[in-house]
């Protein structure tokens, strides 16, 4: 899935992100606002993982994204 599509539909995919990263708050997702680097930073902060690990998690989550995540 193209990250631009995820970012453009951030409000719609936030629920999927919340399922994946339960330690992130609604405020965290508001701050991230679809920006990939911000999401990785929040994952680092909340989960205490290295930058590379956080970026890998975001990349894996992005690979799992499907059209079903987006309401029509």
What does this structure look like?
Helices cover 69% and strands 0% of the residues. The mean pLDDT is 94. It has 72 residues and is mainly α. The relative contact order is 0.19. It is globular and about 30 Å long.
Element layout with pairings:
Elements: H1 3-8, H2 10-20, H3 26-32, H4 36-47, H5 51-64
Structural class based on helices, strands and sheet pairing: mainly alpha
Give the biggest beta sheet: none
Q: For the terminal residues, how far apart are their CA atoms?
A: 16 Å
The number of domains: 1
Entry summary:
Helix content is 69%, strand content 0%. The chain has 72 residues and is an all-alpha fold.
Keywords:
72 residues, mainly alpha, Protein Yjbj, Chain: A, 5 helices
